[in-house]
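Posting for a labmate who doesn't have an account.
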Amino acid sequence: MLTPAQQKVKQELEELQLKALVYQNEKGNPDKRPSSKKWIYILVAICATTCSFILLLDFSTDTQEEIVSYLQIEQEYAKQSAELFNEITKKDSDTLQQSGIMQTKIQKKVHSLEAPAILTEHKSDLLNVIQQRRDIISYLTETKNNNSIQLNKKLIELSIKEEMAANSLLSAFDREKIHYDTQEDGTVQYWVNSVAYHY
């Protein structure tokens, strides 16, 4: 699977080879060979195109490895945030406040992560998810008589934001041409350099 940049380099290489053949055919004299200067120019062009193709291939691999590295760190924070939030039904108001503080710390850690350019939208969506979890915890902490309609509205908003974060991750995988499978439990298995990862 070639990236668009790699496909363009390959296409330019093929065009150069085709131009060389057309040029020889247009000359009309098959016995006459192109001068050594022309051969040198052709060889330099082919070498330059090949080198740029190799560099682009290495750059793509580095970018995908940066994505894996970032996602592994981000995934830990996302997991911590989800676990804290899922335990709020078992907690009293003091413990809820502590959970809110922990969510704030997690949000700051995720915010300080340097995401690869292709994952900036996903990072923003994840920050929105953590913020929504904080808002729900704050709502539960601050209101003594919880309005179930208001709480349900906030939970629906959280669900939508979680879905947006998942979709932005998958669209980043699509743009980077990273193969992935969505599992039944909502996790994503993806492959980089023939190594499987889970998110």
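Reply:
Got it, the structure tokens are right above this. The chain has one domain: 4-198.
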